[in-house]
Write a structure and sequence with these properties.
- Two copies of one chain form a homodimer.
- Chain A is α/β, with parallel strands linked by helices.
- Chain A has helices at 2-19, 26-34, 58-61, 64-84, 97-103, 115-127, 147-159, 170-187, 202-217, 221-224, 243-250, 289-299, 356-361, 394-427, 453-456, 461-482, 510-524, and strands at 137-138, 195-199, 231-236, 258-259, 269-277, 302-307, 331-334, 347-351, 433-435, 446-450, 486-492, 495-501.
- In chain A, strand 11 and strand 12 (495-501) form a beta hairpin.
- The first copy, chain A, is globular and about 70 Å long.
- Chain A folds into two domains: 62-144 and 446-501 and 505-527, Alpha-Beta Complex (Aspartate Aminotransferase, domain 1), CATH 3.90.1150; 154-397, Type I PLP-dependent aspartate aminotransferase-like (Major domain) (Aspartate Aminotransferase, domain 2, 3-Layer(aba) Sandwich).
- The interface between A and B is large, with 244 and 244 residues.
- Chains A, B: It is found in: Cytoplasm, Cytosol; Cytoplasmic vesicle; Golgi apparatus membrane; Presynaptic cell membrane.
Chain lengths: 527, 527
């Protein structure tokens, strides 16, 4: 019988696809009936229409139970926060994946758990989490935990809405408008004019920029695809972030068309995009933006500045000269969740030309962007992005900015750069250390090798290199096992594994830097 | 002097780009020095290195101040939650954008605000926010506020980490692993095998699926771009989500290569992707997946199921037959933030083939995905996505699943579908209503026109249609001004504006449906 249905079904299905699927056709109804006994019973051992006790609805139960539960969770979180900032606490209670899978029952069940079980799950989750707020956690570009930012994120979760229209996020849409304008002013675009959007991270912001650049040069690409345009090529600095290549792969440009070594005009390829980096991920280096902008202008190429990491230095009078020329860019990625310690995620793409984002990405979904709404439709910003629903990432930045003021962010950034200079000065001539690049760091990145006494004086260069390559991974593994601190390491080109220290946590102090050095030496002395 | 620098700078800059920017060159240092007086002084009226009082660091101040502040915010949030579920409260306190911009000082300042000001800002933000938890808020596919989900999101903010590696998110990476496996089991893939990732929304999940399909058929596209592959064409149902077109535009395929009317083989174009919809955005219709899978199999085309809206029906024994055949798909988008009421955002892309996501998207960033780490590297999942940093979206789904069990989600989904059937039965023969499509809704979408008495008996069909087109926008505007309820409307093809009612809020009751009908009639009777 099922076979007969299928035979009948295929030609009619083609017809249905043609005419649109809905409304029901005879055959669809037939099919539904014939398959009404679900194959999924294995997932549902007990009967339907049962409401578990943990379905808390303040409107139904009165509030006591719900409020008590939420307050208990908050108490757990407050205790975790105090602990996270305490240097006596471990940064991490490390376990290997298979171990951790065994240490708790993480499986999803058919039956509901009690609220007490839920609280236990919350505690277990935090017990094995990394304390990213810990003053000795230096592992990523995003560290620290700002209390106002955290409060703002809690509020965002509670408001639980979506950025696509003013209709459902009136305040947040306005705050995005206000904040993007302020950021454009700081970039230096006249009167803060231009466009922008908050996106889910720097990689997506960079990809959006590349998308805009291509659309600007070849608007027909939107409808006709890459077959309508010449072979494109994008340029970027050697140590630029891998998201530039990811973007090129996704957009159908291909990673081979991302030239990272220099500016070479390849016959038959049209250069459309230059991504200059303001603060590379590993070295924290800044490309010379003014010079790059001259070239972009000469060849009429979109100039993007990937300031995901370094963009925040625009907030500092002492350091913003490193981005001189940024005001000449067509677009800028700037992630406040990195150097400004805004809770994850908060990444902005700023665009100089107004209207382009809308033209590039809009599809006019009529269920969201009705043209006969009763308010100013320019505040329905959802069609500027590839995303449909967009998480509210703005409130935490906005509230922190209110709390600190521009000068508060500046002080925080300056302090982190001062700490990294302190680290640099401390180790540059210290026995057993070698710097990966010469000169003072431009950002808070300090890249260095630690050479344990045992290999410090090895004569065979190759042998020494081979040993040195293993030092950082072992020290890092020990750091995690002891849980005392975390710092990243990596190889780069022909350079063997080195430590990349970064500081973005305003809770860190000079003493924490001292601690890091002592800890590396303690954990590495026997290697 | 600056002119001379520039002249000197350009050729050397080319050289620097070629050799990589870092380490410093003489010229860079020269440039930095010459521009050490920043042009940005306008943004920073007062002196540097000033720490505002609102920089709360539990480790520095002791905890009283921080904890008091956070508790005060929590109290504001708890009060807001109680209010949100109260039917006597307005869903929205609506103001036009320009009005709202005036009603509060939303501007960002140079100077810090006091913590009291911050609390005032929190209250103001919530005052003008949409109460998306309100039992009479029906405006989007994502409504409601689950208390366990909310608690989980607060914990996520507090843990403030990133999904790219096990190293920095051990528990969350494991919970993603556990939950994706469970979702694949429910889809029906053997032993829950396969792959997947949580992404920032259904549009990105759909684009990721398209990216995988293209890579599967033409892996060389990653390096060589679209010029290395034939002209591609994708198929999708007529009422599919606009993200399929957005994806095609972004990936360089072009929107004209998305065929939404049926399955036509176009000379010289290679079909590579079919996106079937399980629960269309407006009508809630389900494509016949079994029939579509037969076609995909025959022509060797990637079958994607966009179940962003309808995927959750897999949790219901009563309704999952509507997705029969989903187990034949190559990839499935499923957004728990819609029908399962998980706080925004929570969207999963599930993929049948293991390893493909990694191959398609990986760029081996050596600062994140070191190959000599001391744990099982398969848990470093970050390279599977286009994103670098990835927000932790898993914990709220996981904790809710624990709290409700599979049967709790089932009960919640069944209830919402029952409410929509109640609405359908109530209005299908009621005077003044016309249904937009025939037959019982397949999902909770009920699409209908309300004809006020004044136009109910108009004889001139065109005149009537013209009037009717204006009815829904006016009623909707009045709903927002009164703040009593919110429901979406839209035109579709040659159909004039109609209401699209959707129910995903488990707090809604039969009485709320009655209220909606009464309210539409009250607000529309004079039109």
């Amino acid at each position: 019988f099922l076979e007969r249905i299928k035979l009948l079904f295929i030609p009619i299905c083609l017809q249905m696809l043609h005419e649109s699927i809905f409304p029901h056709t005879f055959l669809q109804i037939l099919e539904y009936k014939s398959q009404n006994v679900s194959t999924a019973d294995v997932f549902f051992p007990s009967s339907s229409f049962f409401f578990p006790s943990s379905d808390l609805l303040p409107a139904m139960d009165g509030d006591t139970k719900t409020m008590t539960f939420l307050q208990e969770v908050v108490d757990i979180l407050l205790a975790y926060i105090v602990e996270s900032f305490d240097r006596e606490t471990k940064v991490i209670d490390f376990h290997y994946p298979n171990e951790l899978l065994q240490m708790n029952n993480w499986e999803l069940q058919d039956e509901p758990a009690t609220l007490d079980d839920i609280l236990i799950s919350c505690r277990a989750t935090l017990k094995y989490a990394i304390k990213t707020a810990h003053p000795r956690y230096f592992n990523q570009l995003s560290t620290g935990l700002d209390m106002v930012g955290l409060a703002a994120d809690w509020l965002t979760s509670t408001a639980n809405t979506n950025m696509f229209t003013y209709e459902v996020a009136p305040v947040f849409v306005l705050l995005e408008y206000v904040s993007l304008k302020k950021m454009r002013e700081i970039i230096g675009w006249p009167d803060g004019r231009g466009d922008g959007i908050f996106s889910p991270g720097g990689a997506i912001s960079n990809m959006y920029a590349m998308l805009l650049a291509r659309f600007k040069m070849f608007p027909e690409v939107k409808e006709k695809g890459m077959s309508s345009v010449p072979r494109l090529v994008a340029f970027t600095s050697e140590h630029s972030h891998f998201s530039i290549k990811k973007g090129a792969a996704a957009l159908g440009i291909g990673t081979e068309s991302v030239i990272s070594l220099g500016f070479v005009l390849v016959q038959g390829f049209v250069p459309f995009f230059v991504s200059a980096t303001a603060g590379t991920t590993v070295y924290g280096a800044f490309d010379p933006l003014i010079a790059i902008s001259d070239i972009c202008k000469k060849y009429n190429i979109w100039m993007h500045v990937d300031g995901a990491w370094g963009g925040s230095l625009l907030m500092s009078r002492r350091h913003r000269w490193k981005l001189d020329g940024v005001e000449r860019a067509n677009s800028v990625t700037w992630n406040p969740h990195k150097m400004m310690s805004v809770p994850l995620q908060c990444s902005a793409l700023l665009v100089r030309e107004e209207g382009l984002m809308q033209n590039c990405n809009q599809m006019h979904a009529c269920y969201l962007f009705q043209q006969d709404k009763h308010y100013d439709l320019s505040y329905d910003t959802g069609d500027k992005a590839l995303q449909c629903g967009r998480h509210v990432d703005i409130f935490k930045l906005w509230l922190m900015w209110r709390a600190k003021g521009t000068i508060g962010f500046e002080a925080q950034i300056d302090k982190c750069l001062e700490l990294s200079e302190y680290l640099y000065n401390k180790i540059k001539d210290r026995e057993g250390y070698e710097m990966v690049f010469d000169g003072k760091p431009q950002h808070t990145n300090v890249c260095f090798w630690y050479l344990p006494p045992g290999i410090r004086y090895m004569e065979d260069k190759e042998e020494k290199k081979k040993h040195l390559h293993k030092v950082a991974p072992v020290i890092k593994a020990r750091m995690m096992e002891y849980g005392t601190t975390m710092v990243s390491y990596q190889p780069q080109g022909d350079k063997v594994n080195f430590f990349r220290m970064v500081i973005s946590n305003p809770a860190a102090t000079f003493q924490d830097i001292d601690f890091l050095i002592e800890e590396i030496e303690r954990l590495g002395q026997d290697l």
